[in-house]
Amino acid sequence: MIEDKLFTLKYKTDKQSHLKPDLTKCLQCVEKTCTIICPANVYSYNEAEKKLTVSYEKCLECGACRIACKHIDWKYPKSGKGVIFKKS
Ligand code: SF4
Ligand code: SF4
């Protein structure tokens, strides 16, 4: 289960998000692919508030959302920040 795998990770959270979607594009976006494709559920969209929330601290840096949506300004977290994968 992916939840079991996610449980083994550690994170060093940056103060600022390394994922910056163009929120004006998000308002017009029908598919909201980011909310489906992300294995860590980083993106969620509140239809009533018309608001995309980006929980960047949970990002696995897999790059899937970067490929799926051209409206995300995607960078790796600053050096020393972000997800830490344990070696098995
Ligand atoms: S980030 Fe991209 S896929 Fe996600 S809601 Fe915004 S425009 Fe749509
Ligand atoms: S890089 Fe991967 S884990 Fe991070 S927000 Fe994008 S899809 Fe989710």
Topology readout:
Elements: H1 2-7, E1 10-12, E2 19-21, H2 23-28, H3 34-37, E3 43-46, E4 51-54, H4 64-68, E5 72-74, E6 82-84
Antiparallel strand pairs: 1-6, 2-5, 3-4
Residues 21, 25-26, 29, 32-34, 43, 52, 69, 71-72 line the site of one iron/sulfur cluster.
Structure description:
11% of the residues are buried. A hairpin with a 4-residue loop joins strand 3 and strand 4 (51-54). This protein has a domain at 19-79: Alpha-Beta Plaits (2-Layer Sandwich), CATH 3.30.70. The model has no long low-confidence stretch (mean pLDDT 94). It has helices at 2-7, 23-28, 34-37, 64-68; strands at residues 10-12, 19-21, 43-46, 51-54, 72-74, 82-84. The strands form three sheets. The chain has a two-stranded antiparallel ribbon. A two-stranded antiparallel ribbon has the order 2-5. Strands 3-4 form a two-stranded antiparallel sheet. The protein is built from four helices and six strands, in the order H-E-E-H-H-E-E-H-E-E. The chain has 88 residues and is α+β, with helices and mostly antiparallel strands. The two termini are 17 Å apart. The structure holds iron/sulfur cluster (2 copies).
